[in-house]
Amino acid sequence: MSEQIEPIATMAAELNRLPGIGKKTAQRLAYFIVSMPLEDVRSLSVAIWNGRKAIRFCSVCGNYSAGEQCSVCADPARHNGQICVVRDPRDVAAIERMHDYRGLYHVLHGTLSPMDGIGPEDIHIRELVSRLQTEQVSEVILATNPDVEGEATASYIARLLKPMGVRCTRIAHGVPVGGDLEYTDEVTLLKAMEGRREV
Amino acid sequence: MSEQIEPIATMAAELNRLPGIGKKTAQRLAYFIVSMPLEDVRSLSVAIWNGRKAIRFCSVCGNYSAGEQCSVCADPARHNGQICVVRDPRDVAAIERMHDYRGLYHVLHGTLSPMDGIGPEDIHIRELVSRLQTEQVSEVILATNPDVEGEATASYIARLLKPMGVRCTRIAHGVPVGGDLEYTDEVTLLKAMEGRREV
Predict the structure, then answer these.
(1) Homologous superfamily assigned to B6-54
(2) N or C: which terminus of chain A has fewer CB atoms within 10 Å of its end residue's CB?
(3) Whether B13 and A47 lie within 8 Å, measured CB to CB
(4) ipTM of the assembly?
């Protein structure tokens, strides 16, 4: 093969489009897949395609879901008056892994970013407002990322919801558990000091 | 989702079976794939399945091939009397990337490993011997890995082929280009000294 073997090269090129899979890794994976039993490759291929096809957005919160409503919204025990607002479904998965939060979610599918021309109409803020008008909500927890866009989005939503008489909270900033003060940036340290508590 | 969203979990579990893809990476990839356009996921899934299905072993050398013979064996210009013996098709790809070798290959699909019960009958040594009886071969280059099994396999084949009057060579051991003497192990250094050449 003066050039690559075509089906392997095609497979590697497709794998190379995934995040964190460079050219070399893609090639290595493609060679591995080619050496796998036919049945296993079928499962892999089918899981990818069926998985993508089966997923839609929960009609209530916008989380990924296999049905009309995601399993959180469909669970009556989770309707406790709390709504946690996040940027995307991955963040829902992260918070669920914590196994502690027992309320609902609202997925914005983006954050405000005037630089990229993303305004309040482009993310699911209107859907959040209409949920507050129909659902019993006692607290909106703003859990967007602790970066510029995330902070701006959290402030915007807080200002929007305050007049509606809903309590808005923001997740705490501080030193990560297991982190090292010496290597913590100044802004995080400042936030950690500001957020200090009686022990 | 008190538990994972099922189609995403299935996808992540399948991806997790690939080498170098841990649980977290698999989850991250699955979430990314779910967010990809449907058409792109179809291409990915089809490339994996079709790629695997299209690949068979070259009837001559045992390399991966899309047809009856691989592109090296099918190329008359490569029949120059040299056969490079490697462990698996990945090694063929590595040597081809060098863009220098112009001979043929023979893929053993394994190396001798008495500990694992892999003897000469379990890898494609017999096929190599019969090629020597039908093809015009002037040199067999033993390019198995420089590890215990690779060395043992190379010695075994060399002893087997010598009586047939075929010239057997072994790829050189030495200090890797760009490497550092200080961090080179003693055995490699010894081989590098033994293999020194007039400059």
Answers:
(1) RecR Domain 1 (1.10.8.420)
(2) C
(3) yes
(4) 0.80
